Amino acid sequence: MTPASLRSRPNIRRAVTVGVVGAAMGLSLLLSACGTTSTTTTTGNNANCPSSATVASWHLANPGKLTIASDTTYAPAEFADPNNVGSFIGYDMDLAREFAKRLCLEPNIIKADFGTIITDVAGPPLGQQRYDMSISSFTINSTRQQKVDMIPYFTAGESIMVATGNPQHITSIDSMCGKTIAVQDNTVEKSEIDDANGTGDKSSGQAPVCKDNKIKELHFTSENDVILQVVNGNADASYQDQPVTDYYISKNPGKTESGGITVSPAPQGIVMRKDNAPLETAITNALQAMRSDGTYLKILTNWGVQKLAYPPLP
Q: Are residues 21 and 93 part of one domain?
């Protein structure tokens, strides 16, 4: 992301994500899962597992488990498996399971509201927390880092999805003025649209270019519902992270295409408590080991997002 776009933003999400929550049945014909999921592992006493004293120092929310919050409505990062909506898949979910495996813990992935995740990770006293961490396509910014630590692991930009042929010629926020745009709640994209309309809190840095010809917003808690608005012709475009746009275009051939990237990729981070350094160190070390042995790149490649690896590939 350029310096101008690396502005401080509130607890809102950038877009790489889509889930099948609330619209799983409607999307089941549109989606087909890609990639592979990691196998669940359980704790063990082999030589590679940490000592009981080390595990105790992590102050886990649930004994023997790595409890991970994620807004599982954001494919291809985290979303419900169309063939088993009780199971979450995506590259973030594969990374989450791999973290648990390397720490000899059982992965405990919990669907959470994106807008409350950082507060819920950071807020309760250590030892009483609901979640140990979150991996959910959070763009790293100074506002979030005031509350939590963020381990960089991926990059993503923002982009537009339109109907094939782009009949409304939407290629930027300026060209959204007067158009109907679908967007997910609690995202940076939603904040940018609000600020473009002159109705937001000005936190995104977006100028009020549509103040006199406002964008007509269709906003939803689930990215699945956002995408359906474009597919069904109810919206002229949708606005979300670049990987999400690319994913749904691939799942809806002939119906949608990209209107272009509006913000270049910037780092996303794994959300960790500030007062649990031992667990943060363990996750950081596990991520480095995954990079070193090729597991990290393999997971991203399985989902076709290896070009968005962080640090960038040579």
A: yes
